[in-house]
Amino acid sequence: MQRTVIPGQFQTGEPGICDALFLFYLPRAKAPQVSLALWIEFKRPGGKLREGQPEWHQRERLRGATVWVVDDFEFFEDLYQQHFGWLHSSDSGIGQLDLLSGIK
Fold this sequence. Notes:
Blueprint: E1 4-6, E2 10-12, E3 20-25, E4 35-42, H1 53-62, E5 66-70, H2 73-84
Parallel strand pairs: 4-5
Antiparallel strand pairs: 1-2, 3-4
């Protein structure tokens, strides 16, 4: 995602929008018209949120999305496994079983 502003001409994105959006559409037979939304704001270690970002994150959380600020990949990997590891197991994980294998 990106935010672009050309004063007096146009703008794209929303103030405070996260860097990336990951969507997973649940199988229609199990949960029609339901998806999981994971927004991630990437920061360097110890990086701070900019003006408008905390408010944007809160609005998305109130809509039902998950919003994470990631400044450490190993912490992110553990958190992801805790919350979304089930996506990569059993029949739902077909084609995704190697998502995080070998990454260090």
